[in-house]
Specification:
It is a single chain. Helices cover 27% and strands 17% of the residues. The strands form 2 sheets. Strands 2, 3, 4, 5, 6, 7, 8, 9, 10 and 11 form a 10-stranded antiparallel β-sheet that branches. The longest helix has 18 residues. The model has no long low-confidence stretch (mean pLDDT 92).
């Protein structure tokens, strides 16, 4: 056995745990003291110029959101104060792993990013077309993406890299069961659901907090592509999804999504058997049923794709009063990573670009910086506190404090990576199971046997039938392969 050297930071400091972020207690938020996480995310954000490191290929459109049901009992956000309230929005939908010139119809999650231009400032809600993700800790995120990108030696995508990472990260099984099902390749951007995936929060003027997951149900119905259908489209029209969305809007066939939430009272999170902040888990609807909130539609194409779609900067830290984050480890890192990536990719003053600028008054003390193209605050004072009527702190809009307990440490939050993946498999009809197994076997066929065997063990733990069918497809019925 070859002895591997210890990992270090960029300055040679040994890394003692590269799997778990530093949090305040086992279920608490990530700490800024985690310099290792900050270094990894900052380094990762600067790996590509100028396209996005992830979600490089996508399409965007303008639209509006309408509140249809009252959820004011859960939030003081002005947007949800009364039924009938509307605001404009911009949406960007994208593939995750491919470059900007890649085909739309690859098997990949789709990013689902929404920018609501509310009267209290921009609300950016970023998620995917899946309710879960591959990892639960952002410390593993850049490694995960590297495994999905190109082999540094050959410059080609490599199934071995992907399955090597996944087989060593059993928390990815739930997402992979979705990814390799029929829903892994949507028929179009219009024919798929969206999810916040992360747990966010809502809070009231009385200081009550509720944990929340957002769901966006397509009004067009779910439609998907098979591998063969997707391959034909990739060869004949690699921009198929982008073209479909543009043409539908251009022809007045405006796609719509109905918006729902799952609501969990703050205290219930402390005793709920599933960690509500684990990005690899869903909340069962029997415990937290969907509550309808509103409807949004896309009804206007961009006038210029670069100025709007490609310079659109979504950041989950944009949350008007009444809406908040949660201790979700990956979300906590995205609060830092997204604006950091935008400053690097499109400049310090990216928020002043027309597509990103809030549709309400902006009062900051920020000045100067590259590509500052507005009045730069004129002659107004640029420090606070001051005696010259500058903007002051909005104390009445302060988010309620978050109760934290436990030691600051690197916690592995995983306790069951198999039950929900197995439940999902058992919910599938026979034809859906056959499609899932066929897609997995095709993707694993060229992977080294030892990785196949390691991954097979995860399938067996989720459901014996799941594992057995994959084993048959790979000619791996050796009992030692699934111990």
């Amino acid at each position: 056995m070859i002895k591997c050297p210890y990992m270090t930071t960029n300055t040679g400091i040994p890394i003692n745990d590269n799997q778990n972020s530093l949090t305040a207690g086992q279920r608490g938020p990530v700490l800024m003291a985690d310099a290792q996480l900050i270094e990894k995310m900052a380094q990762f954000n600067r790996e590509r110029v100028p396209e996005r490191v992830v979600h490089a290929k996508g399409a965007g459109a303008h639209g509006h959101f309408t509140v249809t049901h009252d959820i004011s009992a859960y939030t003081c956000a002005k947007l949800f104060a009364k039924v009938g309230t509307q605001c404009e929005l911009f949406m960007r939908i994208s593939t995750v792993a491919g470059e900007s010139g890649s085909a739309d119809t690859v098997r990949d999650p789709r990013g689902f990013a929404l920018k609501f231009y509310t009267e209290d400032g921009n609300w950016d809600l970023v998620g995917n077309n899946t309710p879960v993700f591959f990892v639960r800790d952002a410390l593993k995120f850049s490694d995960f993406i590297h495994s999905q990108k190109r082999d540094p030696g050959t410059g080609m995508r490599d199934n071995t890299m992907q399955w090597d990472f996944w087989s060593l990260s059993p928390e990815s099984l739930h997402q992979n069961t979705i990814l390799f099902s029929d829903r892994g390749i949507p028929a179009s951007y219009r024919h798929m659901d969206g999810f916040s995936s992360h747990t966010y929060s809502l809070w009231t003027a009385k200081g009550e907090r509720f944990w929340v997951k957002w769901h966006f149900k397509t009004e067009q119905g779910i439609q998907c592509l098979t591998n063969s259908e997707a391959a034909i489209l990739a060869g004949t029209d690699p921009d198929y999804h982008r073209r479909d969305l543009h043409n539908a809007i251009d022809q007045g066939d405006f796609p719509k999504w109905r918006v729902f939430v799952q609501i969990m009272p703050e205290l219930e999170a402390e005793t709920y058997p599933i960690n509500p902040f684990d990005l690899t888990k869903v909340w069962p609807h029997k415990d937290y049923p969907l509550i309808e909130v509103g409807l949004f539609e896309l009804n206007r194409n961009p006038d210029n794709v670069f100025a709007e779609t490609e310079q659109a900067a979504f950041e989950p830290s944009n949350m008007p009063a009444g809406i908040g984050a949660s201790p979700d480890k990956v979300l906590q890192a995205r609060l830092l990573s997204y604006p950091d990536a935008h400053r690097y990719r499109i400049g310090t003053n990216y928020s002043q670009l027309p597509i990103n600028k809030a549709h309400c008054p902006i009062n900051t003390y920020h000045r100067d910086g590259q590509t500052r193209f507005d009045a730069n605050g004129g002659s107004s004072v640029n420090y606070q506190p001051n005696s010259f009527n500058g903007p002051v702190d909005a104390y009445p809009l302060k988010e309620p404090p978050l109760k934290i307990c436990g030691d600051a440490d690197r916690y592995d939050q995983g306790n069951d990576d198999y039950s929900q993946a197995g439940d999902l498999y058992r919910l599938m009809t026979e034809d859906k199971k056959m499609l899932l197994i066929g897609n997995i076997v095709a993707a694993l066929a060229t992977v080294p046997r030892f990785i196949q065997e390691r991954q097979l063990g995860h399938f067996y733990k989720a459901d014996p039938d799941y594992g057995h069918r994959v084993a048959v497809g790979l000619n791996l019925l050796d009992p030692s392969a699934h111990k």
